[in-house]
Amino acid sequence: MGFKTNSEDDEAVSEINVTPLVDVMLVLVIILLVTAPLLTQSVNVALPKTATTIPDTEKQPFQLGIDAQGVITLNKNPIADMNALETTLKDELAKNPEMVVHMYADQSINYGKVAEVMAAVQHAGISKLAFVSVEK
User: Fold this and answer.
1) Which of 51-60, 70-79, 94-103, 117-126 has the weakest average pLDDT?
2) Residue 57's pLDDT is what?
3) Segment 25-62, tens digit of pLDDT
4) What is the pTM of this model?
5) Which residues touch 100 (CB under 8 Å, ≥6 apart)?
6) DSSP 3-state assignment of 130?
7) Is the terminal CB of the chain with fewer CB neighbours within 10 Å at N or C?
8) Cβ atoms within 10 A of the Cβ of 85, count?
9) Which residues, in sequence order, are CB contacts of 85 under 8 Å at separation 6+?
């Protein structure tokens, strides 16, 4: 970096030498031009063929919902109260120990109601509970 002084004013003038920057950028462009053709090579592979499968409907997660009026549904079937919900979940858990529950709750529902339903799920012995949010 060089400094020039003028006899009329005592300010220092600095100039940046951009030649090294241009040299580095040109080297990077050359590296890019050399390596780009190497990246486009591909290897032809014969992939194995598989048969289509049908998803297992028995292992689908249970859908536990609470609508805006506070009505609780399990797989779109209304449940009368928390005791009935807990009993139903215990029966389903006995059939499938790896049971998963997806919980849908309306945004206008009181969080206390959601907490009660979560407690019923936990009392039933289910440890896999997921919350699902749906945008409208």
Assistant:
1) 51-60
2) 64
3) 999 999 999 988 877 777 787 878 888 877 666 677 88
4) 0.55
5) 61, 62, 128, 130
6) strand
7) C
8) 21
9) 72, 74, 79, 117, 120, 124
